[in-house]
Automatic annotation (TrEMBL):
Listed pathway(s): Carbohydrate degradation; glycolysis; pyruvate from D-glyceraldehyde 3-phosphate: step 4/5
Protein known as: Enolase
InterPro entries: Enolase, Enolase-like_C_sf, Enolase-like_N, Enolase_C, Enolase_CS, Enolase_N
Primary residence: cytoplasm
Residues that hold (2R)-2-phosphoglycerate according to the record: Q163, K337, R366, S367, K388
Cofactor: Mg(2+)
Record-linked CDD domains: enolase (cd03313)
Originating organism: Methanospirillum stamsii
Family as reported in the entry's similarity comment: Belongs to the enolase family.
Length: 427
């Protein structure tokens, strides 16, 4: 079978927030093809690879015609004839053609989407799932961390300061049951909110986003919902937070608007210690801001043997920043987002780097998504054991969970569920 690239086309499509994003089709000489679409963040880290936006009047400046043009005019002619499974060569060539350190010439949204679509085309040629193409020996299904209450930038700053409150059904026997438990808690939470007269409108990732008086309140509402749904908080379903604190960090101060508090790094750490004592929290992401390296070290000293501490904006899926974090013992886990770094090859490198030192790896969607479910396959292929992809509602989120159900079905009996072992630091 001739798996060389015959043609590739990029176009502008829409994401879940009504913003344009890049979609790419890669066609091979054997008649098979692969398609991928790029997600987009709202609480983006300042060290992420560049997402190229047009900045003109179309879509209020948010168009991606320049990135589309970069694929069609600059990248496509150079990739034609290359073998689709030569992923690392293809990614290296695109990095080289771009020539910048942060993919600023073509845009990570251009480069990544080609990279993902190429992997898909190669998987189609082998007639296997993308997960199996990336690793023929994969069987571990992740704990789905479902973000059921949204705040921060994802709820237009109308709810909590903290951005994400997730439930992790660590005690479920298998992945489908974990999803069922999560959905039941999600529906129960809706009635808990209704009973309290709180809004059941949802944020960007499908979680409820009512106005709340503190950052403890959503955790407390979720614990009530877990209990009312008939599960045991902590043992069966634990809490996972992403405060996304870079978004409320100004002049070396963490500003908790809902509580009228202004905290220094050390005080913010105390705040988390107190919260971990009160709620069944097993993981906190971006507890501190993206360049508060000293704070992260202190945080890891104090909480790192108890819970998982995940760097998102801190590491931006960048092997260089992850290496620094490992050397300085700044965290014990990394969040993985393909478009923060911009190629499949570099994303896999980032995951392996973290796994080699025993860190947790949680694969993540972005707040702006499409129905592309690449991350579901990637999570299984690399045995990451954890995925966060929003609430079990909204098509673009559910599609990832549904793909994991399909992967489980194809892998069949050999499948296992990460459960508690998915979180190395769960006490
Ligand atoms: O902070 C995060 O982890 C992500 C995804 O939940 O949000 P965004 O895509 O807006 O950066
Ligand atoms: Mg985050």
């Amino acid at each position: 079978m001739d798996t060389r690239i015959e043609r590739l086309i990029a176009r502008e499509i829409l994401d879940s927030r009504g913003n344009p994003t890049v979609e790419v089709d890669v066609f091979l000489k054997n008649g098979l093809s692969g398609r991928a679409a790029c997600p987009s963040g709202a609480s983006t880290g300042i060290h992420e690879a560049v997402e190229k936006r047009d900045g003109d009047k179309r879509f209020m400046g948010k168009g991606v015609q320049n990135a589309v043009h970069a694929v069609n005019e600059s990248i496509a002619p150079r990739l034609i004839g290359m073998v689709a499974s030569d992923q690392s060569d293809i990614d290296a060539l695109m990095i080289d053609l771009d020539g910048t350190k942060n993919k600023g010439k073509f845009g990570a949204n251009a480069i990544l989407t080609v990279s993902m679509a190429t992997a898909r085309a190669a998987a189609a040629s082998e007639g296997v799932l993308l997960a199996q193409y990336l690793n023929s020996d994969c069987y571990l299904l992740p704990v789905p961390c479902m973000n059921i209450m949204n705040g921060g930038a994802h709820a237009n700053w109308q709810g909590s300061d903290f951005q994400e409150y997730m439930i992790a059904p660590v005690g479920a026997p298998d992945f489908p049951e974990a999803m069922r438990w999560g959905c039941e808690v999600y529906h129960t939470l809706k009635s808990v909110l209704k009973k309290k007269g709180l809004s059941t409108g949802v944020g960007d990732e499908g979680g409820f986003a009512p106005t709340v008086p503190s950052n403890h309140e959503p955790a407390s509402l979720i614990v009530t919902a877990i209990e009312e749904a008939g599960y045991s908080p902590g043992k069966e379903i634990a809490l996972v937070l992403d405060p996304a604190s870079s978004a409320f960090y100004e002049e070396e101060t963490y500003i908790l608007r809902t509580e009228g508090k202004k905290l220094k790094s050390g005080e913010m750490i105390d705040y988390y210690q107190d919260m971990v004592g009160k709620f069944p929290i097993i993981s906190i992401e971006d507890a501190l801001a993206e360049d508060d390296w000293n704070g992260w070290k202190e945080l890891t000293k104090k909480l790192g043997n108890k819970i998982q501490l995940v760097g998102d904006d801190l590491f931006v899926t960048n092997p260089e920043r992850i290496r620094r974090g490992i050397d300085e013992k700044s965290a014990n886990a990394v969040l993985i987002k393909l478009n923060q770094i911009g190629t499949v090859t570099e994303t896999i490198e980032a995951i392996k780097l973290a796994q080699n030192v025993g860190w947790g790896t949680m694969v993540s969607h972005r707040s702006g998504e499409t129905c592309d479910s690449f991350i579901a396959d990637l999570t299984v292929a690399l045995s990451c054991g954890q995925i966060k992809t929003g609430a079990p509602c909204r098509g673009e989120r559910v599609e990832k969970y549904n793909q994991l159900l399909r992967i489980g079905e194809v892998i069949g009996k050999k499948t296992s569920y990460a459960g508690k072992s998915g979180f190395k630091y769960h006490t």
